[in-house]
Write a structure and sequence with these properties.
Order of helices and strands: HEHEHEHEHEHEEH
Number of strands: 7
Structural class: alpha/beta
Helix content: 25-40%
Strand content: 5-15%
Radius of gyration: 14 Å
Largest sheet: 5 strands, parallel
């Protein structure tokens, strides 16, 4: 897998979506002086159930994202992630078009987050595996972090 090419493609395809680095998000989540963003996981239920970022809520489709965010003020910060950033950028772009002013894609998404040693959870328990999506995209995730793929 090629991170630089993947990130460049996402930035080009979703040029309206600000990209937040994993280090920036980690810092933000620890900041006492800044309210935490709504974290949206744009992956499938099966992927989410393996692991996710702490307090992330799942919204794989526009309808699900709409249901989650409908009552939020339009200036509420939202960070969307998936495996590498394509699905989350799609949802982030859509939220932007709905009038949300502070929406980010987590650049590198959960693969880069976990690769850098930032914590992932299954429920309230910290775990050390991530759903690799498939053999191809999974090449961007450290093999030691791969959850077994179902047969």
């Amino acid at each position: 897998g090629d991170w630089e090419g993947t990130k460049a493609t996402i930035r080009r395809r979703y040029s309206n979506v600000p990209q937040l680095t994993t280090a920036e998000l980690s810092h933000w989540l620890k900041a006492a002086d800044r309210p935490a963003p709504l974290l949206i996981d744009a992956r499938s239920k099966a992927e989410y159930e393996v692991s996710h970022l702490q307090n992330a809520v799942r919204a794989e489709t526009r309808d699900e994202a709409n249901a989650l965010t409908d009552a939020l003020p339009r200036d509420h910060a939202i960070v969307v992630y998936c495996s590498v950033g394509f699905r989350s950028s799609h949802i982030a772009s859509w939220l932007d078009s709905r009038g949300f002013k502070d929406v980010y894609n987590l650049e590198g998404s959960i693969f880069e987050w976990a690769n850098k040693g930032f914590p992932v959870y299954r429920g309230s328990e910290r775990v050390h595996v991530v759903h690799p999506y498939d053999e191809n995209w999974g090449s961007l995730l450290k093999r030691s972090l791969w959850a077994p793929l179902p047969n």
